[in-house]
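Try it yourself: sequence plus NAP, in.
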Amino acid sequence: MNQLTDLIDGRTRLYGLFAHPAEHSLSPLMHNLSFQRRQINAVYLAFDLTSDLSGAIQSIRELNMGGVNLSMPFKKQVIPYLDELTPTAKMVGAVNTVIHRQGRLIGANTDGTGFFENLRARHYVIKNKTVTILGAGGAGLSIIAAGASEGLRTIHVFKRRNATFPKVEARIRDLARFYQTPIRLYAYDDRTNLQRAMRASDFLINTTHIGMGNDSQSMPLTGEEMKVLLPTTVVCDVIYEPRKTRLLLAAEACGCETVNGLGMLIYQGAQSFKLWTHEEMPVDAVRAAIEKESENKNGGIGS
Ligand code: NAP
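Structure, out:
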């Protein structure tokens, strides 16, 4: 911390995370390390908001903060308080990054673009590929939007047929029209189409919560269903804790390459960092720092 506090003076710019809970976030580590490496006079703090979001948003202006990230449960709630949304944030209906530019608050969504930036960094080709996406919440829709803008050939989306289905269906229709990309929405329990889509897909992406927290022993698909995957299909999980979800372990048993959510986390942060500072995040140093932190906490990666 000495290096960081050495840099703080009367001109230090404040950035932050508004979330609840916020204390386990890796964003302060990522951004503070990046500010130090890039010699930017700024600090990033995590704010655990238990009350008024409107007051917190107002404080971005009043404290002349550079910007904030939003996480659960504020990604949708923040929208009415902003002056402007990027086209992607508008279509997805969720914001994870607010940029404060000359008194105006601009909402962006870097989750989906961060997901694909990570795949590109790992040398995967995205254009003209077919994907199957499980879940269509904030992360799922952001990945769908980014995937459509990246020129995916077809996107198959599986979501529970519940009260939010019609709304998601309308968003997906708008995204398909805007990006001129075939995006097909199916009920999550439509196993026939799920198996057909999986067999035809270059990427299978889990964007549900299944595999983390209390659900860490669960999988969004059965082991039997996984068997239709070709070994050339890359199986991705947006979850990064644990690093290897049950889904990724089952995919490896099918001979598939796997990608966990850590790279997405780093690259969505890198894109927020660039929007705020116009500088590149030192992603390799950030990844090393996160792995070290995780080793210290868990006594080893993947545990
Ligand atoms: P969200 O908006 O609540 O969406 C969750 C999605 O999962 C919804 O579509 C939901 O279905 C579906 N789902 C949940 N439980 C399910 C079940 N039992 N069966 C079928 N579908 C189920 O949450 P989110 O913000 O998108 O976050 C989802 C995951 O992404 C979390 O694990 C989060 O930590 C992770 N994430 C990772 C990153 C990263 O950088 N790596 C960034 C953002 C989020 P319904 O629509 O039917 O309710």
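One thing you can check immediately is this: DSSP finds twelve helices and twelve strands in the chain.
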